[in-house]
Amino acid sequence: MTWLDSIKWDRDGLVPVIAQEAGTHDVLMFAFMNREALAETARRGEAVYWSRSRGRLWHKGEESGHIQKVHEIRTDCDNDVVLLTVTQLGHEPGIACHTGRHSCFFQRLEGDVWQAVEPVLKDPESIYK
């Protein structure tokens, strides 16, 4: 049995993954990995996810240059969620979200409305061509 066998993959062979910034502990994003993506992440030391929309492996930053350098890979107590501790590279401060923001978690519920509370650091049109 390998370390990958201890992960509790869902029926589609995926595991949820949280990327957390090493210095600030900000939660940057949520994604999924399959077995190959997790193995490749461990091998490269950079985040590789399974893109459900693309139907393929997705090396974070392959288009934008906003790569996630992985410092640590952890699982929760049930081995059904992976936590990556990363440094977000490619722009200062790091951009993890395709909207050009530091974190994908930029909306906060205020009353009964979602409000964007984090600024756009770089126009997504200039990131993705």
Structural topology:
Blueprint: E1 14-21, E2 27-34, H1 35-44, E3 48-51, E4 56-59, E5 68-75, E6 82-88, E7 107-110, E8 113-116, H2 124-127
Detailed description of the structure:
This protein has 129 residues and is mainly beta. The mean pLDDT is 93. The chain is globular, with a radius of gyration of 15 Å. A four-stranded mixed β-sheet has the order 2-1-6-5, covered by helices on one side. The chain has a two-stranded antiparallel sheet with strand order 3-4. The protein has a domain of 89 residues: Roll (Ubiquitin-like (UB roll)).
What is the name of the CATH superfamily of the domain at 3-91? Phosphoribosyl-AMP cyclohydrolase
According to DSSP, the number of beta strands is 8
- The CATH class of the domain at 3-91 is Alpha Beta
Percent strand equals 35-45%
Shape from CA axes? globular
Briefly say what this structure is.
The protein has two helices and eight strands; from the N terminus they run ββαββββββα.
Features:
2 helices, four-stranded mixed sheet, 36% strand, 129 residues, Ubiquitin-like (UB roll), two-stranded antiparallel ribbon, mainly beta
